[in-house]
């Protein structure tokens, strides 16, 4: 296992370099740039714009700029935001924990809903619960996530009111109430709508995957043998069937993490959540190249780590899987 982990970590370095090359080229060939905001200013001459480009290093060839950026990155210097003039690592360090907090809670809620619902739907195939769960799952997969988020704000923030105070039933944005002392309930209130929005986008498809995988497993010979030996129904499902049925779901979850990060972009933008998604959106609008590169590299590293974690979970669920 240790040799496998070392090999995967060594493979991650060249992969991140290739990702950084592709992203750097794409960002730099997009029309506009950091100087676009100055081009319509009548007080600035062409000499002023050329001076700004020299100060930002934009007058150099793209390969030279990339090598300078990569060399500084390897030295631990991620550069400075072109807008705030703050270090990129400082900007990311303030926002990354907030995104991990939001995605972590969403992941736990999603798994707590999707796994039992998918398993029960398979065990009680064609029952009323199965039909209701399948219908809701299809509806969840069909609803655009950004539209659902706006509906949540309209219903729970703009329409419904607290009968005691007359205030909106749930906050419409932010991570906590500004100026208020720390409160666990206040944090939970601000989490409810963003988590509901993200959970809809992920739980619906996970329920379908879990149901299909469980239906395939519960008809295997070893399940019938376990039941013939007198094993209880719950023990057969959770001890024998669940581990094998969960393997496809682990694969889907690992491959689906980029979608979860993109969903966080919409969620954080709609609900003004101070995380990486909101930071990426603001940086893209302002052509903040250094900050964009830092955000994308961090997200790519997190996705690579999540795939590695999925491989480790395979080994825990199925002892037949060995890594050399």
Give a description of the structure.
It is a single chain. The chain contains twelve helices and no strands. The chain is mainly α. It has two domains: 31-77, no CATH class; 89-317, Orthogonal Bundle (MetI-like fold). Helix 10 (233-270) packs antiparallel against helix 12. The longest helix has 38 residues, at 233-270. The protein is globular and about 85 Å long. The mean pLDDT is 84.
Order of helices and strands: HHHHHHHHHHHH
Q: If you compute it from the alpha carbons, what radius of gyration comes out, rounded to the nearest whole angstrom?
A: 24 Å
CATH class of the largest domain: Mainly Alpha
Kindly name the structural category.
Answer: mainly alpha
Count of all domains: 2
β-strand percent reads under 5%
The end-to-end span amounts to 6 Å
The total beta strand count reads: 0
Average pLDDT works out at: 84
Shape: globular
Domain ABC transmembrane type-1: 96-314
GO biological process, one term: transmembrane transport
Family: Belongs to the binding-protein-dependent transport system permease family.
Keywords: Cell membrane, Membrane, Transmembrane, Transmembrane helix, Transport
């Amino acid at each position: 296992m240790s040799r496998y982990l070392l090999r995967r970590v060594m493979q991650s370095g060249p992969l991140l370099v290739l990702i950084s090359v592709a992203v750097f080229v794409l960002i730099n060939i997009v029309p506009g740039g950091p100087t676009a905001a100055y081009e319509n200013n009548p007080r600035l001459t062409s000499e002023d714009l050329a001076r700004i480009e020299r100060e930002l290093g934009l007058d150099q060839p793209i390969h030279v700029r990339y090598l300078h950026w990569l060399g500084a990155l390897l030295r631990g210097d991620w550069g400075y935001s072109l807008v705030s003039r703050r270090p990129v690592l400082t900007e990311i360090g303030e926002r990354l924990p907030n995104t991990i907090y939001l995605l972590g809670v969403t992941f736990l809620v999603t798994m707590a809903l999707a796994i039992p619902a998918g398993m029960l739907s398979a065990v009680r195939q064609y029952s009323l619960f199965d039909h209701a769960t399948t219908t809701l799952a299809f509806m969840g997969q069909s609803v655009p996530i950004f539209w659902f988020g706006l509906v949540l704000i309209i219903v729970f923030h703009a329409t419904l009111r607290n009968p005691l105070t007359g205030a909106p039933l749930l906050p419409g944005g932010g991570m906590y109430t500004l100026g208020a002392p720390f409160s666990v309930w206040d944090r939970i209130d601000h989490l409810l709508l963003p988590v509901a929005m993200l959970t809809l986008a992920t739980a619906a498809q996970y329920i379908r995957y879990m149901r299909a995988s469980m239906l395939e497993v519960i008809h295997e010979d070893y399940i019938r043998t376990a039941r013939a030996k007198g094993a209880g129904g719950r023990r057969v499902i959770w001890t024998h069937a669940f581990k094998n049925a969960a393997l496809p779901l682990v694969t889907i979850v690992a491959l689906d993490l980029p979608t979860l990060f993109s969903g966080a972009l919409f969620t954080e933008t709609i609900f003004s959540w101070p995380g990486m998604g909101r930071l990426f959106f603001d940086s893209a609008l302002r052509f903040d190249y250094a900050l964009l590169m830092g955000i994308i590299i961090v997200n790519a590293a997190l996705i690579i780590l999540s795939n590695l974690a999925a491989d480790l979970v395979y080994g825990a669920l199925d002892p037949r899987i060995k890594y050399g």
